[in-house]
Amino acid sequence: MEVDKPINTDCIEDDTDCTDSGLGISVDITSNDNTLHELPALFSSKTLLELCCSSWSQSANAKVDVQPYLRGCKWSPDGTCCMSVVNNDGVHITELPRDLYSGSVDSSRTIDVLDSVIHVKESGLIYDFCWYPGMNSSIPETCCWLTTRQNAPVQMWDAFDGSLRCSYRGFNAVDEMEPALSVTFNIEGTRIIAGYKKVLRTFDVDRPGRDFAEHKINSPASCFAMNSNLLAVGSWNTTISLFNVNELGNYKSIGKMHGHSGGVTHMKFTPDGIRLVSGARKDHRLLIWDIRYYRRPLNILSRAVDTNQRIYFDISPCGKYLVSGGTDGMLKVWDANKVNWHSSLDVTDVDKDNVTYKFPLHKDCCNSVSIHPCRPILATGSGQYHLKDPVSTVSDENETQIDADEENYRQDLVTGGAVMNNLDMKYSSEAENSLVFWWIGEVGDLT
């Protein structure tokens, strides 16, 4: 069902003009040739306009612990579609509406309700996923993605029909197949790097199967960030390891970075390749590192991360904006021209929230954000696992056995304390499992 009026979500903190002065180069998704254009201005209206949405709800016959919340979303490299991973519901591919390929939008635009064009119903928990870096919809053989999941090898899927193309299997010393915890392509897209509990395994894209090169590591590889020949490996032991990867796929250790208080869950290099941004579970800090001087972080930014869930962040193609969600449902934006988030650390401001803009987008955890590669469009995903309040569970089971006096007494107890537990996130009933596209460019007719 379509919604007649779009939702304008204004930022909480009003600030000065936010015109994007950092311009870069990208590929126009409306053409099949290599036509180049400047990247658009982002957050110039200080307002997010909802464009499209898709949501998932729990089946009436599903068990209580089967909850279809989003666990991540990523735009394809050519910007034509967005991949989202839904807990207990596999992978969904959603196309960008054709009218958003070019031009601008106004506040009277009808919100589109998105349907998945591809749905891969994978069983088991999906650990990691990524697009092929050279993905281009006009070249079908490049349209694919990788997933790694529980009790399964690394698998490559076709983005046109959702079929399984091939698998890359890693085996341990006793010839048992191991599931990878993380996976990524190298920059050229010729190799697949898979992270395991004690090793990194490199597969040749053209040779699926069990042929791989192996490099031992000391702790599980929870996430990757790749930049040219530099590989950053995050771990659940709170450290980040830097490796130099040569053309033959050999790894040379550079050093380790220490600073997080929880396991590292997501990392990304800035477009200039000099700085690395990292986030961890149950850690409210985003750490900015200069890989040339990696002994201590350059800067510390604050966001809400109260659970072990992976909370994604993204960096704009121009390198000016850092965008992150949080378990409080808030979207935070740091503008390099105003807070200089990739500069040196001011120790007096460590505990201060130096964010440029705040947007209250979701009533549930905003666990993933992804900026479109060449359009002023932001994709956000929401949802998390909700524990059921044990007080209400016991009350429901015994409801038929409680007389009027006992019911009144129980209500007094609930009013006094148990209801307050619902304010706690782990017992919250405010579930929102949605994928939303937002316009983050100029909106000229806002009043």
TrEMBL record:
Q: Which GO terms describe its biological process?
A: Cajal body organization
Kindly give the PROSITE patterns that the UniProt entry links to this protein.
Answer: WD_REPEATS_1 (PS00678), WD_REPEATS_2 (PS50082), WD_REPEATS_REGION (PS50294)
> Which Gene3D superfamilies does the UniProt entry name for this protein?
YVTN repeat-like/Quinoprotein amine dehydrogenase
A Pfam family that this protein carries is WD40
Q: Which keywords, in A-to-Z order, does the entry hold?
A: Repeat, WD repeat
Query: Which SMART domains does the UniProt record give?
Result: WD40
Residue ranges of the WD repeats are 257-292, 316-335
Which GO terms of the molecular function aspect are on file? RNA binding
GO CC, one annotated term: Cajal body
Which PANTHER family did the record assign?
A: TELOMERASE CAJAL BODY PROTEIN 1
In the record, the note on similarity to other proteins reads: Belongs to the TCAB1 family.
User: Which protein are we looking at?
Assistant: WD repeat-containing protein 79
- Native species: Parnassius mnemosyne
